[in-house]
Design brief:
With 458 residues, the chain is an alpha/beta fold. It has two domains: 130 residues, NAD(P)-binding Rossmann-like Domain (Rossmann fold); 259 residues, Dihydrodipicolinate Reductase, domain 2 (2-Layer Sandwich), CATH 3.30.360.10. Helix content is 33%, strand content 21%. It is built from 13 helices and 15 strands. The strands form two sheets. The chain has a nine-stranded mixed β-sheet. Helix 1 crosses helix 3, helix 6 packs antiparallel against helix 12 and helix 9 crosses helix 12. The two termini are 42 Å apart.
Length: 458
């Protein structure tokens, strides 16, 4: 993989929501923190002028993180704009003109996936693919075959090592912290296996509904939106083997091996729910069968994890917005003190959002003569969320050609393989009340491995 830094940024969809919420703040951050100083070219078909795009950028920064006077002035001096149709060859000729001889541009496709192939072809046919890098947003395909087809199309114009499939969850500091905590502390490795771990739970709860994303969400659903990508990546970080060597792809090699060992989902191990009132959201079909909640039981067919049940759930309109991992250790092999040790007493809790929290659950003795215990939790670290924003980190890595926080084609394929059997379920999702923890069927799914751990707000 080339280590040469990209010498220009071209972002398609410059007038869109993603650019407004994430890309402009990330560009200002890269200028402020890393001295970014390359041409930045926005592309869209909006009938806008460069001055209108600059005004949009200013509004974006005021709404998302604030203006940094010096960095913003630099951003304005670097920013250019091409207003054109992605299907029009003259658009790509204008892009080449604005690049002013840049040899290694980074093309960021902040556009609907249906346009990825069109833009990649337009760039490739006008000589922009040879040494360029291509960043594509999720969802990468809607199924295993569509993802494979998209990879084939992109590979016609861009080599695989120059394609960066972005999943902003991988840029989050707390998600990286899972890997670091595991492999920077040798005490965990001897017990991180089927011999000592009873079960694992991952919960991604969102208090809000789909809000103004009704049309998008009704074509996507919880499995495609967060399960197939974000949550399977968290699972990989949590259960993969240690990376071997220090090459950038060492981490992705182990992630790929782990995800290829995850057993494909079966309908009997999946609960799909839909919150009451979802069908009245603008853009949502009145008879929609799309899930806003999913709970699933998975197994990893590897020596390390054979027989350990893994439960993942995600949902909207739940009581809190929080993502947590609970690793439950096995109970002692016998009751030494004539008391029943609760199964949940021994655990490790990793909180990913809204803050970072790593804690160990232990059983300790009550003061007094009787050998009776109580459950306590030792909080190992609590950190505020003052981290480098995920998109800023990922955009910087892509410019440097560092791919370990991006999806590789075989990893994406393995993720689709896991969810493929349940993507097109004919059964209607179970309706659940807003503000609840989802359908009761999810509790039945976890059964004696439960109950579910419900994250708290603080």
């Amino acid at each position: 993989m080339s280590s040469a830094v990209s010498d220009a940024i071209v972002f398609f969809g410059a007038t869109g929501d993603l650019a407004y919420k994430q890309i402009f703040p990330s560009l200002q951050g890269l200028i402020r923190d890393e001295g970014l100083d390359v041409p930045i070219i926005g592309i869209a078909k909006a009938g806008w002028s460069l001055d209108q795009l600059k005004a949009r950028a200013e509004d974006s920064l005021k709404a998302h993180g604030g203006l940094d006077g010096k960095a913003f002035a630099k951003l304005m001096s670097l920013l250019r704009y091409v207003d054109g149709d992605y299907n029009d060859q003259s658009t790509y000729i204008q892009i080449r003109r604005e690049l002013m001889g840049a040899k290694r541009p980074l093309h960021y496709l902040a556009i609907p996936p249906s346009l990825f192939a069109t833009v990649a072809e337009g760039l490739g046919e006008h000589g922009a693919g040879a040494n360029a890098r291509l960043v594509v947003e999720k969802p990468f395909g809607r199924s295993r075959e569509s993802a494979r087809q998209l990879t084939r199309v992109l590979n016609r114009f861009f080599p695989e090592e120059n394609i960066f499939r972005i999943d902003h969850y991988l840029g989050k500091e707390p998600v990286q912290n899972i890997l670091y905590t595991r492999f920077a502390n040798s005490m965990f490795e001897p017990i991180w296996n089927r011999i000592h771990i009873r079960s694992i739970q991952i919960t991604m709860a969102e208090k809000f509904g789909v809000e103004d994303r009704g049309k998008f969400y009704d074509e996507t659903g919880a499995i495609r939106d967060v399960f197939q990508n974000h949550l399977l990546q968290v699972l990989a970080n949590l259960t993969m083997d240690p990376p071997t060597g220090e090459e950038w792809d060492a981490v992705r090699e182990q992630k790929a091996a782990l995800l290829k060992a995850v057993r494909p989902l079966e309908s009997r191990n999946v609960v799909r729910g839909q919150y009451a009132g979802y069908r009245s959201v603008p853009g949502v079909k009145s008879d929609s069968a799309v899930e806003t909640f999913v709970a699933a039981k998975l197994f990893i067919d590897s020596w390390r994890w054979a027989g350990v049940p893994i439960y993942i759930r995600a949902g909207k309109a739940l009581p809190v917005t929080s993502t947590e991992v609970m690793v439950y250790f096995k109970r002692p092999p016998r009751e030494t003190f004539a008391e029943i040790v609760p199964p949940a007493s021994g655990h490790m809790r990793l909180r990913i959002s809204p803050d970072v929290n790593i804690a160990l659950g232990l059983r300790v003795k009550h003061p007094g003569e009787v050998m009776k215990g109580q459950n306590v939790e030792l909080v190992l670290t609590e950190q505020e969320t003052a981290f480098v924003p995920p998109y800023q980190r990922l955009l910087g890595d892509a410019m440097r050609g560092i791919g370990d926080l991006f999806g590789r084609s075989d990893i994406v394929d393995a993720q689709w393989r896991i969810v493929e059997p349940v993507l097109n379920e004919a059964a209607l999702p179970v309706i659940y009340a807003q503000g609840s923890w989802g359908p009761e069927e999810a509790s039945q799914l976890i059964g004696t491995d439960g109950p579910w751990h419900n994250p708290m707000t603080a």
